[in-house]
Design goal:
alpha/beta, Rossmann fold, eight-stranded mixed β-sheet
Length: 220
Amino acid sequence: MAIEHLHIAVPVDAVRLEGILSLPAPAAGVVLFAHGSGSSRHSPRNRYVADVLNQSGLATLLIDLLIGEEQEVDQQTAQLRFDIPFLARRLDGITGWLAGRPEVTGLKIGLFGASTGAGAALVAAAELPGLVSAVVSRGGRPDLAGTALARVQAPTLLIVGGADVVVLELNRRAMAALHCRKELRSIPRASHLFEEPGALQKAARMARDWFVEELTGPRQ
């Protein structure tokens, strides 16, 4: 499948956030990645998942939620990666920008959140019910979305490593607070980063199947 990769910069909060918009031809939907815990558009795990989605006909946007100076501060303090309202506001702006891009006009938008990015993705989904059509969390902290969980309308899939005991329990609590179509899937013996043989591949396939089901068809 032919895939075009565009290097883009999105104006949000008086800064420009750099990203890579990958476009299979034709695209059936588009997925915006919400990185967390100090990660960026260069995350090898998220890039792998994006490749799996691209090969299934889904466009992807891997984008930094922090500019260089903010990344430096976060590496020293780990403060911004847990500032969910701040990250969600960035995602709101990026989602609105993405909805207006001619390359993906009319396509449904999904959010893929990893680690703390999952909390921000769910807050953004709650704020933008008319734009966000699906959410997937991989090894995420959906609990950080707090009271916004009850307002999420987009079908949501939570993927957690079976050996990631603490995060698994936090996902169970978040699952109970969600009132949308939802599923929690655990990958046996997988740890937080899904580094075990085959674990990331299983998570990517789960995300792919969820997004393909939920994003196929024109945006209303």
